[in-house]
Design brief:
single chain; 86 residues; alpha+beta; three-stranded antiparallel β-sheet; 38% helix; XRE family transcriptional regulator
């Protein structure tokens, strides 16, 4: 897909946010999203992974390691980026 097309079709949170008890979802929190063409959902884990990448890229201030450790314990996964895996 063309880079300009991607940037011109950004998703926005549609105001809905649901806690889920879905055993198939493996997500504690799911956000309803929409772009110009689709309604879809995005899980909190995906958002946290994006935050971690933004932190590594210098787009947000570094968060304390203790905060990331608490998030990892709560959500059962460590949020690492490609940079950290190399």
């Amino acid at each position: 897909m063309d880079h300009n097309t991607i940037l011109g079709n950004r998703a926005e949170q549609d105001g809905d946010c649901k806690k889920t008890d879905c055993t198939r979802c493996s997500e504690e929190l799911v956000f309803a999203m929409q772009d110009k063409h689709h309604d879809f959902s995005i899980g909190l884990r995906t958002i946290l992974q994006c935050l971690r990448l933004a932190e590594q890229e210098g787009n947000v201030p570094p968060l304390p390691t203790d905060w990331w450790n608490k998030i990892a314990c709560r959500h059962g996964t460590y949020f690492t980026t490609e940079y950290e895996r190399e």
